[in-house]
Structure formats: C-alpha cells, structure tokens
C-alpha cells in the first residue's frame, strides 16, 4: 500500500514538473568551448573526457586539420584541430588549449579547441534553428544556435563535422 | 517471417555453436569409418548421440525441417546399428549422410546470416533417405536370415557374446597365489561387465593357492569396452608369468575339466614371446580410446579483450620501468621487482597468445571431405595425405585459411592429377595420385604446402593464355619459370577452356592470393613438368605481435617488421648512382637497388637529407627489394600491432604503405610500415 502511494505521488510530481517546464523544456546539455573568441558547443552525450594537449604522431597523407593520432589509455585516437577544420589560421597552443574526446559511432576522436568554457542546459525557448553567416562556411557544421544573455553558442553537428 | 520465436535469440548462438561442433564430429567419424570401412559400436553410438542431440535441439528451437531430417538420419543408423556390415556394402548411405550433414550446415549458415531466416524444405532429402531405408529394410531381412542360420550352428549365443575365459599362471615361487589372484580380480573388476573366477574361494581359503599353482587361475569375464583392455591389465599385473585365452564357448567348469588336453592344444602366450600379439592389442586400444580433454568454449571477443588488456599491461609496464622520473636513481629492490614483473608479464603474454592458437586439424579435416566428394565426381583415384595438422596458428588466421586451402585442393584434384591413370603409369608413377597437405612452423612463420604428384604446370600453355589475355608486361623470353608459374594466381586466369563445376573461371586462385595476403602471408607456386605442382603458403604465426625495428625520420618514429629487413648500413654520396629521372640507386654486392627516401614518401622534414647522415635499410619482400633511407635506427622491440583508428580508414592508409600503429614504451605512437605496399606504391 505504502509503495503504491509513493509511486502515485512521484507520478503526480512528474506531471506537474512537465507542465511547469513546458516553456523552458530541457532538450540536452552541451559542453561549450572557444574557437577564436566564438563559443561553440557539442552535445554532452558525445563527450567522453577532456584532456590536455599531448604530443601527437603525424600520419602522412591526411588533410592538415587532422593533426595526427594520440594515445588515450592505450587506444590510438585521431585528433582534429577544430580551428583548422573551420579554415581559420593556426595559433600556438596555450595552457588553455585542450582536447575534447568525443565518441561518435563507436569511434573515439579528439577535438583540439582553444579552451573549454563549461556545461550548459539547452532550453527550448532559446534555441534558434536559423543559421547565421560568418566569414567562412562554418555554418554548415552547425546543428542549432543558442542565445542566452546576449551570448551566442553554436552547437556542432558532429555527423557533418566528422563525415564531410 | 520472424527469424525465430522471441525469447529464443539467446539460445540461438548456443544452438549454432553446439550443432556446428557436433556436425564436425560427425564428418570426422564418417570420413574415418569410410576409410577404414568398418564401424565400431563406439562410432555408431557416437553418431546416434550426435543425431539425437541435433534432433532435440532443432525441435526445441522450432526448426522442424532440421529435426525431421535428423530423425530420418537416426533411422538410417538404427539399421546400421542392427547390422554394422550393411553400411560398407552401400556407399550411398555415406552420400546420404554427408548430404544431410551438408544440409544442416547450410541451414546453420543461413541462420547466422543477417537476412530473415526461412527454413529450407528438407523433404526431398528425407524422401531420399526413406527410399534407401526401404531398400535397406528389405535387404536387411534376408541378410539377417542368412546370418541367423549360419551363426546359430557354429558360434556364440547372444548372452555369451563377448565373454572370454583366461587361464593365468603366476611366476614360480611367488607364494600366496590365492591373494595374488584376489588382487588381480580386484584390479580388473571395475572394467568388467561380467566376472567369474575359479577357484572361487581365493579370499578365504589359503589352500586354493595350491590349485592355482597346479591348474592356473581361471577368469571368465566380459568387459564394458573391449576385452583386450582386460588382457592388458592381466598382462601387466604383478607376478603373472603367463596367461592363455581359452575357447570362448566353454564355461569355467568344463574348461577346468579339460585342462590337461587344453594345455597341449592352446598355445601358451608367454609374456616374453607375446610380441606378435602386443601390437594388435595396442592398435585396438588406440582406435577406441579417445583422449578426453577438458575444454571450455569461450567467446572470441572476450579473448580479444583479454589480449588487448595484456597488450596494455605490457606497454604500461615499460612506461613504469623506464619512467624518466627514475633516471639515475639507485633502486636495487625496485629493479629486482621490475625484473620479476617483466618475467610474469612475458609469461602472461605467451599464455594469452597460446589461448588464441588453434591447431589446423579442423581446417585440414574439411579438405578430406572435399577430396572424397571430388574423387567420386571426377572418378580419379587419389591418396590424400595430411601432415602436421597439429601445427597451431592464431584463430583469426585459421578462419581465413579455409577458402584458400579448399581452392588449392580442388585445383590439385582437377588440374593436377591426371585424369587417365594410364598416363601416370607411362610416366613411371603410381596409378593412384597423391595429394599432400602439410604444415610446419619455422621461426615465426607457418608454411603450408599443398602438393600433387600430377603432370605439373604446362609453361607454354600458361604463356599462351597470358598472351591471349594480354597479361604479359615484357617479352616472353624474359619471363623466368617462377614468374610464369605464379601467373596462374592472377585474377581471371585459367588454362581451362571450359568452365566446369570445379574450375575454369579463374576466380579460385585469386581468392587464394587475396585471402592469404589478408593475413599477411604469401603464396608461391612451384612446379616440375611431369612431377607435380606445389603451392607453398607462408603465413605469420600471429598478427598481433611482431618484432619491429624502430626508425626515426624527422620527428616521426616508424616501425618496420624485422622480417622484411635484410640489412642496414651507412653509405656516402659517392656510392649513389643517379638515373636520368633523378632516381637514386645503390649497388650492393653487384646488385642495384633503388633508394626510397621515407621523408619524401611521407612528406616529413628530415633532420638531414644527406645520404651519409642517415642510414639505409635493405627491405626485401617476396618479389621486390628496395633500400629505404631513414634518419636513424632506434632499436628493436616486440610491438603490439593495433589497427588504425576507424576514422582514418577513409584515407586508405594501407595503400600508403602503413599497416597499423603501435604504442611505444614512452606512450607515444609509432606507425607500422607495410613493406609489401610500400614497395608497390
């Protein structure tokens, strides 16, 4: 008896939560990072870990944004410099530069970013699907855009980013 | 249609695995018995067990076509069990059972496929078996009648069948013969289904020893398995000087009465003079006793995981032991412990490697089956010899060997062995052809040879065909024998004018080459006109761990498998020969080799591009050699080969001459050079 009562209470609470949050429905969480001053993000489900810059082994015959492979817990992981991938100029790595390891389609891939900002909730009312145009064609790798407190976050479409 | 009932998926894997194992066993028994042309009770019971299990589990999984077929096959063997002689008369039974076994295998393959499974109709096969059953049943009746009339007169009644009476004599002056006899009885008791002895009061009556000394100790027994086992036990027993086997029919008392007479008639089998009998006994034991090993089956992915972890441990171990933080420190007990650790990890690695090693027996046995079928279809009499089937190879390699070997054996059967035995006799060979399949391991490589003693490859015909297909790249006269023979491995090449069931499309040999190269091996054809052809396959023992030489080019470190390196040396500019197209060459002992600069090939900035600052490595593959220029040698290591991350596959690393990567002791990654592709590109 007691059990069912608790369940019922829990259910009621869930329902009320959903009604309350309808306007600000939680879609996902994103990990945001900087590339040349602009804030980008990647859905947190893809992210495995964040590690510091490591020496990488160059692989001949690959495009210049593919910096090489690194050893992550005895696994060879390719790393992509997001800056170069977007066609922006390369800069020297700083102590804020780091590698975000994402797992996409069971493949582990490292993304070199200028620095990590933090983790944010994605709320429905602040998501806009319209692409913005900046000087390079980065917009085709963007899934959606979040505006919050005058801050614009561009969320990466990993599939296009990696497969194109 | 749904593949199987829901909730059964988990059982499916088990079913497939179990049935496959059983079918392999079945094939093996069938081939063995067909060759020796006789069934032992053990064999038939084993076949029964197999069929029954297949039937049961197929019914449980709801595969009615399979369970029906298994049931019919069981019926077939029921008759065989009743009258073991019948099967040797009718080879069609063998064909039927093999067909049934093939049907099962095909169905299981279908089940394993991704496509939705629809059961294949087994009714034609079943009706075929039924027909044979009908024939057998009728002939069985008549034969049984014949057997009854002939046997009832002369021989053993059913109850006494298999009983044996033995008179045992103990060594002279042994003393307490009654107790010796009692010990002997105890010894054989466990093996006997039936046991009687005389005198019977040996345990209690010490007087009985006198009788034993005078008349011998009589034992009448029937063994569970084989009477020869008991004889062997008696023979080995303490103080037994000799024993004799008395006519099976007489019971103990009658034998006892006629002791005097019998002694003259039956030849005493003295222990010393038993030599002629011994091998026979041994042989009988040998065929029936199968060595029972305790085995478990493990999912291969788990083994791969284990293997990965061990690889990581080895890398981590060298990271700890050669840690830069420890440099220059005096750490006596640390290095002692480190040595111990290294010893253990080496052992661990060997053990894990050995777990993945499986003997070639399974693959080789399957060839037996192919030869058998083709013998009948092509009407060629062929002796199939298997050697070194116990040789062990990594499981992943074995899986890739099946197809190539099958094609090679088929090729030998079809092309190699002459179809006219007279032709063989004229050439001074035995009428019966021989195909040999042998394996041996030598220094990290397995060498598998498929050879026939047929007519050999006709060079002119090969050249003619090659010309026809426009495969020649240089004037005919410049081709060596070796090159000509190896032409038959090219895709689309066949000297057969007609496409037959077995060959002619020129696909088979290409499959051989592709599959063998996939596991890092090579195929070479050797042939002597009139004497036969041999396909020599060389494959690495394992794919996972290689001996590698680390070389540095600029900032990058590459690993070259040691097996490709012939030598390394320094040289200077004066030795270099330049050709007109800015190519560089070097002459070593009268042979010129092209020089391949790795930094150019891989687009790396070298420390120095002066030939005297770097080092040259002479790299040799099956048919090409080249001198590779690198900055310096770092050292030789055992490395764990890892495939490239999947993401890099789109850049076709293999074609660039890189086969994988490995993690070095310091945690850095080195790329492994694939010499075969490096030289090709």
Q: Which short descriptors sum up this protein?
A:
heterodimer; A: 164 residues; alpha+beta; OB fold (Dihydrolipoamide Acetyltransferase, E2P); 6-stranded mixed β-sheet; 11 strands; 18% helix; 45% strand; B: 681 residues; Four Helix Bundle (Hemerythrin (Met), subunit A); Alpha-Beta Plaits; Helix Hairpins; 5 domains; 5-stranded antiparallel β-sheet; 22 helices; 23 strands; 21% strand
Give a topology summary.
The complex is a heterodimer of chains A (164) and B (681).
Chain A lengths: L1 H20 L4 E10 L2 E6 L3 E6 L13 E7 L2 E7 H4 L12 E7 L2 E7 L1 E9 L3 E2 L13 E7 L2 E6 L1 H6 L1
Parallel strand pairs in A: 2-11, 5-7
Antiparallel strand pairs in A: 1-2, 1-8, 3-6, 4-5, 6-7, 9-10, 10-11
Chain B lengths: L8 H28 L4 H21 L2 H19 L2 H5 L1 H22 L10 H32 L9 E7 L6 H13 L2 E7 L9 H8 L1 E7 L3 H10 L3 E7 L5 H6 L1 H7 L3 E2 L7 H11 L11 H22 L10 H25 E3 L1 H18 L3 E6 L4 E3 H22 L4 H6 L6 E10 L2 E8 L6 H10 L12 H6 L21 H11 L3 E7 L3 E9 L4 E9 L2 E6 L3 E5 L6 E3 L5 E5 L2 E7 H4 L13 E6 L4 E6 L1 E9 L17 E6 L5 E5 L1 H6 L1
Brief summary of the model shown:
The complex is a heterodimer of chains A (164) and B (681). By secondary structure, chain A is of the alpha+beta class.
């Amino acid at each position: 008896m007691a059990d069912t009562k608790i369940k019922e209470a829990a259910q009621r609470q869930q329902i009320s939560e959903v009604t309350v949050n309808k306007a600000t429905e939680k879609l996902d969480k994103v990990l945001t990072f900087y590339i040349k001053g602009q804030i980008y993000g990647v859905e947190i489900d893809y992210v495995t870990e964040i590690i510091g810059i490591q020496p990488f082994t160059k692989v001949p015959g690959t495009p210049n944004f593919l910096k090489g492979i690194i050893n992550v817990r005895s696994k060879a992981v390719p790393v992509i410099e997001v800056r170069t991938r977007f066609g922006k100029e390369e800069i020297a790595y700083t102590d804020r530069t780091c590698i975000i390891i994402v797992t996409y389609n069971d493949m582990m891939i490292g993304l070199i970013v200028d620095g990590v900002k933090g983790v944010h909730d994605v709320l429905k009312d602040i998501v806009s699907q319209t692409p913005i145009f900046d000087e390079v064609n980065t917009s085709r790798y963007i899934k959606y855009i979040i505006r919050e407190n005058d801050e614009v976050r561009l969320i990466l479409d990993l599939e296009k980013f990696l497969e194109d | 249609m749904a593949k199987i009932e829901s909730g059964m998926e988990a059982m499916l894997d088990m079913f497939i695995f179990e049935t496959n194992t059983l079918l392999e066993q079945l094939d093996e028994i069938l081939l063995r018995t067909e060759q020796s042309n006789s069934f032992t009770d053990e064999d038939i019971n084993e076949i029964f067990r197999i069929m029954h299990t297949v039937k049961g589990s197929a019914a449980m999984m709801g595969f009615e076509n399979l369970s029906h077929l298994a049931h019919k096959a069981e019926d077939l063997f029921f008759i065989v069990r009743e009258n073991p002689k019948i099967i040797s008369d009718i080879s069609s039974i063998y064909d039927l059972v093999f067909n049934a076994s093939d049907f099962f295998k095909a169905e299981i393959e279908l089940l394993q496929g991704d496509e939705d499974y629809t059961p294949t109709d087994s009714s034609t096969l079943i009706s075929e078996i039924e027909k044979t059953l009908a024939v057998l049943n009728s002939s069985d009746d008549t034969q049984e009648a014949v057997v009854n009339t002939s046997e009832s007169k002369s021989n053993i009644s059913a109850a006494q069948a298999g009983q044996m009476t033995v008179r045992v004599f103990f060594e002279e002056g042994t003393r307490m013969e009654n107790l010796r006899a009692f010990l002997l009885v105890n010894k054989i008791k466990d093996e006997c289904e039936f046991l009687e002895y005389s005198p019977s009061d040996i345990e209690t009556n010490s007087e009985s020893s006198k009788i034993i000394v005078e008349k011998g100790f009589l034992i009448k027994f029937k063994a569970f398995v084989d009477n020869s086992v008991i004889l062997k036990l008696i023979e080995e027993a303490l103080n037994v000087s000799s024993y004799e086997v008395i006519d099976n029919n007489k019971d103990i008392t009658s034998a006892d009465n006629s002791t005097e007479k019998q002694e003259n008639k039956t030849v005493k089998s003295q222990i010393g003079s038993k030599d002629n009998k011994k091998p026979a006994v041994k042989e009988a034991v040998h065929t029936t006793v199968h060595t029972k090993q305790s085995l478990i089956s493990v999912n291969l992915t788990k083994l791969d995981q284990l293997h990965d972890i061990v690889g990581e441990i080895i890398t981590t171990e060298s990271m700890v032991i050669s840690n830069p933080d420890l440099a220059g420190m005096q750490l006596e007990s640390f290095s002692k412990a480190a040595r111990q650790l290294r010893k253990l990890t080496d052992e661990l690695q060997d053990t894990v490697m050995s777990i993945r090693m499986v003997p070639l027996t399974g693959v080789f046995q399957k060839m037996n089956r192919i030869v058998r079928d083709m013998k009948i279809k092509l009407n060629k009499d062929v002796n199939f010899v298997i050697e070194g089937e116990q040789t062990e190879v990594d499981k992943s390699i074995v899986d890739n060997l099946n197809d190539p070997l099958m094609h090679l054996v088929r090729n030998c059967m079809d092309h190699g062995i002459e179809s006219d035995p007279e032709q063989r006799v004229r050439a001074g060979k035995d009428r019966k052809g021989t195909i040999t399949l042998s394996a041996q391991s030598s220094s990290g490589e397995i060498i598998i040879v498929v050879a026939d003693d047929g007519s050999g490859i006709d060079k002119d015909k090969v050249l003619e065909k090659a010309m026809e297909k426009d495969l020649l790249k240089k004037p005919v006269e410049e081709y060596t024998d070796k090159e000509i023979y190896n032409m038959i491995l090219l895709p689309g090449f066949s000297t057969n004018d007609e496409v037959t069931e077995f060959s002619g499309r020129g696909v088979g040999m290409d499959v051989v080459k592709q599959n063998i190269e996939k596991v890092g091996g090579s195929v070479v054809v050797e042939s002597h006109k009139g004497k036969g052809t041999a396909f020599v396959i060389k494959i690495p023992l394992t794919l996972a761990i290689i001996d590698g030489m680390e070389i540095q080019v600029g900032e990058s470190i590459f690993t070259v498998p040691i097996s490709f390196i012939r030598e390394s040396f320094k040289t200077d500019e004066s030795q270099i020969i330049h050709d007109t197209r800015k190519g560089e060459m070097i002459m070593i002992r009268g042979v010129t080799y092209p020089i391949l600069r790795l930094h150019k090939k891989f687009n790396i900035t070298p420390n120095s591009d002066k030939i005297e600052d770097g080092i040259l490595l002479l790299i040799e593959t099956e048919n090409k050699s080249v001198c590779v220029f690198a900055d310096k040698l770092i050292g030789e290591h055992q490395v764990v080969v890892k495939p490239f991350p999947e993401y890099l596959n789109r850049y076709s690393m293999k074609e660039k001459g890189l086969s994988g990567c490995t993690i070095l002791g310091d945690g850095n990654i080195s790329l492994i050079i694939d010499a075969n592709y490096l030289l090709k590109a």
